[in-house]
Amino acid sequence: VKQAIRAFIVLVLSACASTRVDPPAASTPASSPPRATAAIDRSNPPQLGPPPSLQLPPIIRRELPNGLKLLIVEHHELPVADFILLLGTGGEGDPAGKAGVATLTAQLLEEGTTTRNALQIADQAAFLGAQLGASSSWDASRVGLHTPTAQLDSALALFADVALRPSFPATELERLRKERLTSLLQVRDQPRAIADRAYASILYGASHPYGQPLSGTEASTRAITRTDVQQFYSTHFRPNNATLIIVGDVRPDDIERKVASLFGGWQRGPVARSEWKEPPASSTTTIYLIDKPGAPQSSFRIGSVGVPRSTSDYFALLVMNTILGGSFTSRLNNNLRETKGFTYGARSRFDMRRAAGPFTASAEITAAKSDSALIEFMKELRAIQDTVPAAELMKAKRLRQLELPALFESTRDIASQLVPIVLYDLPGDYYNTYVQQIERVTQADVQRVARRYINTGRLAVVIVGDRTLIESSLKGLQMGGVEIRDITGQPVRP
Amino acid sequence: VNQVLLVALCYLTTAATSGAQAIRLTSEKYTLANGLEVILHEDRSVPMVAVNMYYKVGSGDEKPGRTGFAHLFEHVMFMGSQHVPVGMFDQLLEAAGADNNGSTNEDRTDYNIQMPSNALPLALWLDADRLGWLLPTMDQAKLDVQRDVVKNERRQGVDNVPYGRAFETIAAAVYPRGHPYSWPVIGSMEDLSAASLDDVKDFFRTYYVPNNAALVIAGDFNRDSVRVWVERNFGEIPRGPTLPPRPQPASVTVARDTFLVLEDRVQLPRVYWTWPSAALFQPDDAPLDVLAYVLAGDKNARLYKRLVYDLQVAQDVNAFQASNRLSSLFYIIATPKPGQTPTSVAQLVNEELTRLMRDGITDRELQRAKNTFRARRIDQLSSVQGKASLLNFYNYFAGTPNYAEEDAARYDRVTREDVHRVAHAYLEKPKVVLTVVPAGQAAMKVTGGAK
User: Fold this and answer.
1) Do the beta carbons of residue B365 and residue B88 sit within 8 Å?
2) Taking CB atoms and an 8 Å cutoff, what residues of chain B touch A150?
């Protein structure tokens, strides 16, 4: 028996009475409308029937003898299939001083194999009407394929070739190095990219991987060698560090056979996990101002080091952040956009990774309102620490519960929903219990996690904008010291 | 080696062609007594529904001095109506697990809502209320806050973005003064400031009438119930006055090659070549899409391979046919790498165009483009929201919602000769060439080298 694991997990989200939307008042029942000509009573929104139950397709789990795990979901609506080969190491595995190795390794997979050059790979993918792509996040590297099933065999062979037999041609490495250095030059034009990079650097410092850009710095981009790339690949691209997610118009036995013939010879290897120091903790709230002469808006990034994906507070944080800045009607967006008109949109986010990623509240604010906006940001970050009204809590919970079907619509959607299951070892019944887990979040939970993870006395406030327009008013707020930083987030000598 | 390759290529061509999947998207269409078009497409594969509402008005219908108004008005449509207090439009939908948005372009404005299927009555009730009862609670405050939001949208998307003003600069040069596409959809700050509450009321009474709208419902619903719901929600909204005649400008030509320069806060210059081209769904539209793909659609594309991959003198190159109802624009855009000049890159672009004009394209290039387009088209059918917006798009621009098969077929019919012909017919005509340069370096601008 080749299949080490053969588990069928049926995910059924049944809508119980408690997941119903409770509208203000009953009016016309939607299910039994009266005569078509009757005008409706418009004084109240219609009362909705119970939400539909979402029947998620079973996940079939298999494992090849070399340790490669397969997650297969059949989805026959369209003649397409999605594959994600997920490797359990991403940018967190970049060697010291070599930020960008993981993303460069992924990028180079498509630049040559032992039998195909970069142009041939691109030619065949386009010819098949397939989308092939490799990338790295902090926690993982991935090779993705989206293909019409009419071309499945050819596309899968190309996918396997790129994943298993990259040749890392030196000429392609040099071309991409040049491209990356030019992109780094262009970052100077982009206030939002400057803000993102400086914010990460200020929160995490130089000795933590999250403090460096995934795509590298100028120094690291110059320092990376072909050996670095080969070493990253040979260490982390191993079947025992990999899962292949398959979603689409396929039959499990058939696709397993095809995958086994392409990936069966892939050799196991020891996979080392990198270790790093905890990021520095801030003891004050500080405004870091980065000058962008002529900028009509100021880019705000406000927050602190947050939580890892493994946190037991995941669902409480999901609901709390939905209220604070995780939806259109959230407090930050409602205040800064819909009430004040300071911005086109304000939001907040806990970026949960294997280690604690950043919590960030952000917006692009019209320059003249930079100080007013900071007052409002701080007001909301403090107010979320008070008890949230029951109706507001309910709205946030319903949104996160009822949007679930939309996350499982296409093969691409389903495949990407399986990624965190694999990456963070979430339980097999994760999506079965998702609705109930959200239902359990209380007002007290929301308040507790807001107080625990958002400390308005210890925030980094990064603002990229026209210093001549905004510095004095920001200083006048006395919300924290104002430090001038350069575009990489480093101190500027006066 | 060549022979082996050839055999492989032939095999693949056969495989790719015979494996082509049928593209189907069919719907039922009817019209209410007040003129509202209704288009229904059932898809029970997921328990979701998408509603897409088209109003046949866009920035091209704006009055002089009010650029950006159609889009500003779109924002005001989310601020509530007589039975929906400010903020409740989005709150009700979020509490029902629905996602919603709107978009405006030169020719139309659309509003979409996607939701779990039980929330459909709410979406219809909300969309009907803002079509039938927007003005009773309309006030200056709603307009003012969205005016500020939209000005920030312009800052975020245009003014605080490198090269952000390029497209509006080009449009103003390609299109004659007064042409509906000669100003940007987002509008100018000055015109946004000028928009008044009376403008909102006039615009609403003129364009936001059932006889200027089309409602698509796609997804998991019961057809008989939905027909009743639509009638009960929308049926009593009175038909509006006859619509003002839509602009019918003469076809657009650029009299002679025009070279422009725009200084910006950028590290690298960027060159934009723009030609007027065939309108959406005109016979030359699909071949122009293929031409754009052959020039810059993938790594082997002519311009990408030569400028970015082989010579590495450009950081990026793009080409696309931006199709619109009245007329279209064909763009080529390239960013010289540090140390390269716009003029030297322009020379290489001209060389590649000359070669293409002389030799035409290969079967392989044509097939890559067709297969890629077909795959993209299938992907558009993977969500109820994608299908809903496609049905309204076809209904308005092609005259029937059931145009998916024909839309796919017009690409299948493109020949190498078609692509060669449209390259000559459009890209040899006079064009507008804009060079965006770092401040103080206007001398960098491309001034010729044109064929």
Assistant:
1) no
2) 15, 19-21
List the alpha helices (DSSP H) in A216-313.
Answer: 218-223, 226-236, 252-263
Residue B137 structure tokens: 């609670």
For residues A267 and B204, give the distance between their C-alpha atoms in angstroms, rounded to a whole number: 67
Q: Distance between CA atoms of B59 and B109, rounded to whole angstroms?
A: 9
Per-window interface: B 269-328 vs A, CB < 8 A: 297-300, 305, 309, 312, 315
Longest dimension (CA), chain B: 76
State the Cα–Cα distance between residues A379 and A396, nearest whole angstrom. Answer: 20
Rounded Cα–Cα distance for residues A230 and A236 (Å): 10
A51 to B118: CB separation less than 8 angstroms, yes or no:
yes
Phi, psi angle pair for A305, to nearest 5°: -65, 130
A25 token code pair: 């008042």
Of B12, B155, B337, the CB nearest to A366: B155
Distance CA A447, CA A443 (A): 6
Q: Is B242 exposed, middle or buried (0-12, 13-18, 19+ CB in 10 A)?
A: exposed
Decide if A403 touches B, using CB distance below 8 A: yes
CA distance B384 to B114: 8
**In A, residues 206-245, which contact B (CB 8 Å cutoff)?**
none
Given a contact cutoff of 8 angstroms between Cβ atoms, the answer to whether B450 and B350 are in contact is yes
What percent helix, strand, coil does chain B show, rounded to 5? 45, 20, 35
- Cα distances (Å, whole numbers) of residue B377 to A474, B288, B367, B389: 50, 17, 15, 13
User: How much is the mean pLDDT over chain B?
Assistant: 94
Cβ atoms of residues B275 and B329 within 8 Å: yes
pTM over 0.90: yes
| Pairing of β B37-42 and β B213-219 | parallel
**Assigned token pair, B189:** 């700050």
Question: How far apart are alpha carbons A449 and A348 in whole angstroms?
Answer: 15
Q: Could you tell me the CA-to-CA distances from A426 to A173, A272, A312, A420, A423 in Å, in that order?
A: 36, 22, 12, 7, 8
Enumerate the residues of chain A whose CB falls inside 8 A of the CB of residue B147: 341
- ipTM, two decimals, is 0.94
Task: Answer yes or no: do A294 and B162 touch at CB < 8 A.
Answer: no
**From CA A121, how far away is CA A202, in angstroms rounded?**
40
Is the Cβ of B212 closer than 8 Å to some Cβ of chain A?
no
3-state helix, strand, coil in chain A (%, to 5): 40, 20, 35
DSSP B279-306: PTTSTTHHHHHHHHHHHHTSTTSHHIII
Residue type, A380: E
Residues 6+ apart with CB under 8 A from B278: B284, B285, B288, B327, B328, B422, B426
* pLDDT by position in tens, chain B (length 451): 333 333 333 333 333 443 456 788 999 999 999 999 999 999 998 999 999 999 999 999 999 899 999 999 999 999 999 999 999 999 999 999 999 999 999 999 999 999 999 999 999 999 999 999 999 999 999 999 999 999 999 999 999 999 999 999 999 999 999 999 999 999 999 999 999 999 999 999 999 999 999 999 999 999 999 999 999 999 999 999 999 998 889 889 999 999 999 999 999 999 999 999 999 999 999 999 999 999 999 999 999 999 999 999 999 999 999 999 999 999 999 999 999 999 999 999 999 999 999 999 999 999 999 999 999 988 999 999 999 999 999 999 999 999 999 999 999 999 999 999 999 999 999 999 999 999 999 999 999 854 4
Contact B303, B319 (CB under 8 A): yes
**Is the CB of residue B292 less than 8 Å from the CB of residue B320?**
yes
